[in-house]
Amino acid sequence: MDLATLRARAPLFLAVFIDIFSFGLMYPLIVALFENGTIVAGYAPSTRDTLLSLAFSLFPIGMFFGASLLGDLSDAVGRRRTLMICMAGLAASYGLMWLALEVGHLWLFFLGRLSSGLMAGTAPIAQASVVDAAPEDRRSAAMAQVVLVNTLGMVAGPAIGGILGHWDFRLPLGLALALCLLTLALLRSAHFASDEARRAFSLDWKQPFRLLARVSDRPAIIVPAASFFLFQFGFLIYYTFILIEMQRSYGFTTADLGLFSMVMGLGCAFSSAIGFRYVRAWLGSDKPTALLGLALCGAFLIVSGLPLPAWGQVAVAFLSTASNILAFITLLAAVSSAVDETERGWALGIANAGVALSVFLAGLLTGLLVFLPVDAFLIAGGVIVLAGILPGLKLAEPATGTELQDQAAAELR
What we know:
By secondary structure, this protein is mainly α. It has helices at 3-33, 37-42, 45-77, 79-103, 106-118, 122-132, 139-167, 170-188, 207-213, 222-248, 254-283, 286-304, 310-337, 344-365, 374-387, 389-392, 401-412.
């Protein structure tokens, strides 16, 4: 990417960074919050697990409705304006959660979690904006730029959230609020994409279901979306339960959980910046890269359910996220390539809605901790990721530049 393009996309990348930064910041904070002395003293263990499940699940409920709506909105009114809506909404959400801790009302915290999910739409919008300008055989490389920014947020968010939350749970919320407002101000004067309205948009709570129903009319998206969903569901089971495991079985503090999550982010960052490029070049195309990523990631998640020392879990966390990126980038590129540019925001919004559903289901599963050990969930997550290989075997390879020219010439003849 040249310097001029980087400058033009900087506000977009910052919005993506803040979105994933604030998301990662919350996970160690939530796990620690519901093991806090005040909540431990006020609720029975089964009730605490239910509240923990609710805290995890409300975000993806909002995300399910918000992701597809915001992706479709960005196709209609422009990427920049929609990103500004996301940042303003995220700022209000973190303000609500800050207030909840100030006044001691959990319902305000839960409301903030729900609204932050509704506004968590920057990733598919940014992905659509970057992919719009990329030829079909270069879309995975374009997607890697956004994923790299995602991983930097994933590294910084949990680490900062864990360390600041170790001192005061309000500190990471205040930081997230300030960063959202800063990003909103920068987006206001940004010019990375056109803000001209492309088509009409009407807000309707039924719209996410209509957008999902549109998938049946576009069969090309079903295979990559199915593989991506299984992959994300399995991995997010791991991401949710490994933090609980590290606290309950290994005695990790809030700061320790943040640093552990940072190691997972470092695995993503390493693969996004270096590993993906070399593996993709070695294998020659997206499909084998995706299949290798699914196989390695699933295997590492299964290993995490075995009796390992703490350093072993840290090593597995790095390897699982490094291999995760191989599948994440290529499957998202496959989803985006299944539609034309007028529906790319919708398609990536559908993928993000799948992530939301995965986070929701993984959060609900924490309510079963009174019946099953954490290790069972970690192993199950790995098996589900491996199941993503089955639809992945049917992935179509994107056409190369030469193939596209041949197709165009054939159409002219």
